Queue: 3 jobs
Job 1
Amino acid sequence: MKSRPIDPPPTFARPKHPYRIREIAAQSGLSLATVDRVLHRRGGVRAGTVREVEQAIADLDKQRTQLRIAGRTFMVDVIVASPARFTAAVQAALEAELPALRPAVLRCRFHFFDSASPAELLTVLDKVAKAGSHGVILKAPDLPGLVAAVGKLTRQAIPVVTFVTDLPTSARCAYVGIDNRAAGATAAYLMRQWLGASGGDVLVVRGHSSFRGEDEREMGFRAEMRTHDKKRRLLEVVDEEDRAETVHTGTRAVLAVNPEVRAVYSMYAGAGGNAAVVDAFESEQRRYDVFIAHDLDGENTALLRERRLSAVLHHDLRQDLRRACHALLQAQGALPGPARSQPSAVQVITPHNAPAAEF
């Protein structure tokens, strides 16, 4: 009778940790002797028991992190240049997420600008640098002066997370928000599917500012259309004055001389802009087959439910802001790991899956 070879004891990659055997035993629910055998790689221990010890150490690591930030208060400045309808959604989303960040306590100072000049944004960034802060969540245009201001904050150990639209050449520690180039390409893909092989031009509506997010959306949209639907003309309306009336007038002017416009892609967040486009089509007694917009705010939600919009490309604001706060805590050493950019997935919202809340 041949003897069966004895299975080697399960291996345990013993990590460096500061915990006593008694702590690990209490966390895992195992006996002191069992934990001691696992830690010292003695035999007579099942693989499942080894995994229980490993999990107990991982759980103790997490608890240690929580203890490290318990009772600490972090002051965060949220600086957003965007229409009021978007900044209201940002504030509501962040305030909804703050309780989930405990045991850390984050206090936020909000600096919202409906139509800020670069000088105004530089002024508030300078005030933050002088007053001190544990971090900045920033949505601003990609301009050299603002890039330099982010560098100044970083040198003062005030980390900056860019939000929704990036400043990739700056010293920001992370970017959170939608992948804008992918969002633009997604809009083009949906547009082509809906329009099919029939003809027709597309009206592209955008703002006049230097927000990189809009630039990337446009690049993604045009690249996709150029590759797969190059014969279709793309006509542009630019909101030069941040006023819905400008969009209405510009859209009517384009429609008056271009009878083949059948679709609209609106890539910006100007207040009332999408409603102005809808009104312009009605004023010209024209109809469109497809209208794709961005961000599920109150205005776009209403237009979507009325079937004035075909789809809204959206991203989870609460998730984005939660990630932004985590990145700032990581940059401050309060959470383990390096702060990393985390682009959000593009959500396609139709009248059939529109959520009840805006964020």
Job 2
Amino acid sequence: MEQFTYQIELGEDDERLDKWISSARPDLSRSYIQKCIKSDDLLVNGKPQKASYRLRVDDEILFHIPEAVEPDIAAENIPLDILYEDADVLVINKPKGMVVHPAPGHYSGTLVNAVMYHCKGNLSGINGVLRPGIVHRIDRDTTGSLIICKNDHAHNVIAAQLKEHSITRKYRAIVCGVITSDQGTVQAPIGRDPKERKRMAVNETNGKPAVTHYKVLQRFKGYTYIECQLETGRTHQIRVHMASIGYPLLGDEVYGGHKSAYHTEGQTLHAMVIGFMHPSTGEYTEVTAPLPEYFEHLLHIL
């Protein structure tokens, strides 16, 4: 069990207990925090309080976070589009709508369920039972190449390359608006949106450094087809960066602010190329995921 202590300072008072904790711990959902409050895992000055309790200066909050109980994740015979495979790594072409790893309330039908069946237990265990083999991820509605690690050695090697930003990651996207410059770079820190914790945003105060390079491949009436190359790999990086300069991704209802005029089922974003130094041979290995059918169809229409 983890334990955290917080002291309320001047300017932080008169805020609801659950709201204050939600800001202090953006990794936890409001509903989970409220559940902890009801279970007396969160005390104010040694006493249980309601979620609506208004904080006062010098209040001391003691927060016991219960140990997570990780469920058994079942292997499922879900077809995989395999782009590359050997004894160390598996590169798959993730389809639109597939979640990468299980999460509360969503323990089946994920990529992890599928690779557990395919790899028959031969996966790295570094990220625990919920994320075996998972060293990085892409959003549910983003398609394309994703590396799965079959052993801990491969996981450590690939993770180190991700940390050093040495892995090649090229994406294809269609954005709303016509970009006039042929190429550009967005360099802006990304962190939690202070107004909406489920979103990310350009956050100069608490964001982590993020760099996205883009180049125009084709211009249409009202839209632009681009390639983005990641220098860093923050959550929703391309979606946040392109929206921040006025060119949100087509179909992105979270950062685009409006529904798409086309049937996209989420953002039009595809992880096309991934390149890495192989964990065993040390040779540079590059894999390309072909554009999905819906993406090709959109380009044809535009």
Job 3
Amino acid sequence: MKAVGVIVEYNPFHNGHAYHLQAAKEIAEADLTIAVMSGNFLQRGEPALVSKWYRAKMALLGGVDIVLELPYQFATQKAETFANGAVSMLDAIGCQSLCFGSESGDISTIIKTVNYLEEHKEQYDESIKMNIKTGVSFPKALSLSFQSLSSIENIMSLEKPNNILGFHYVKAIQQQQSSIIPLTVKRKNADYHDEHFATETIASATSIRKALFASEENNSAIEQYVPASTYILLKEYLNEYGNFHGWENYWDLLRFRLLHSNPAELRDIYEVEEGIENRLMAAAIDSFTFKEFMEKVKTKRYTWTRIQRICVHILTNTKKEDMGVSLEKAAYLRLLGMTTRGKDYLNKNKSHFKLPLISKLSAYKENDISLDIKASRVYSLGIGKQKGINLLHQEYKQPPIFIK
């Protein structure tokens, strides 16, 4: 069976994702689709709108055949580390190809860009260092350095978020010497960060989340932008757990952590550096909302996304030593769900997988997965007490979801 891989967050699964899945299977001429999906905390340093289990079910009902969880140590990282973990998992489970969305839509240009920057690596790295010294953020330093080098034609812009991810997926494939064939689909209509609905049927996940938080009790505004199965599951989650997850649900917990800790304790947290702990503690004193706190902390050097990722690690008490494990490749394949086709693929091929496949937590005792468990415990605190306990128990008791 020929498998195409996708790397996703599905926060939530919408019509654009459904279009990407269909296009991926057609371009790759694949029999099934395998998704590596972020868990309960995401790459931009945010709690997922709904739990990984609900998002896995959305994916399976939307056309994915196997859903694997991208471990916390990769899911909450910059694009390069995020890509390393996800690509290593798709390689380990035997995907012949990886198809991702991009603003470019041209895989040859993306590959050419990766090769070009590898050829000019010393010059590129030195330019990044020089730009960072001027006080700009790391993403801005990358952009400026790229612009200073890319004087030849047909080099892809690295200012768009999906182009950046696509660049790192191709780079990871090359560095890991994987046989995976990279493919891309041009993003359709809505930009990644669009906060408003772009067309009658396609909208960004950002705009969908914004509409849901604006009116949790009446989410009909998003109905035309998501498959019917997603719409039903979102309503079901709201009925079962009482609210969607956003940073404001966790602000009191984060504020307690910041005010309860001393600077030395915060400096032990992953990604806390350059004295940012003092700025975080000062802003927490008189900020009544997470948004207010973020607006006080954000600087030209520290982007909103970078600060949010730091906050996730503070919230989960993830220390530098906890991330001391390899950030080049994943150590396991955590199975969240499968269809009948996906189950057949696993049964026929699991003896050839390069990493252990985990369907029950009790069957895997390694420390590697402890960060995922801790993240799920913290995530469950974002809803009411009893409902949070139910959600936490799901981490241990929920078998992989099976859709016939």
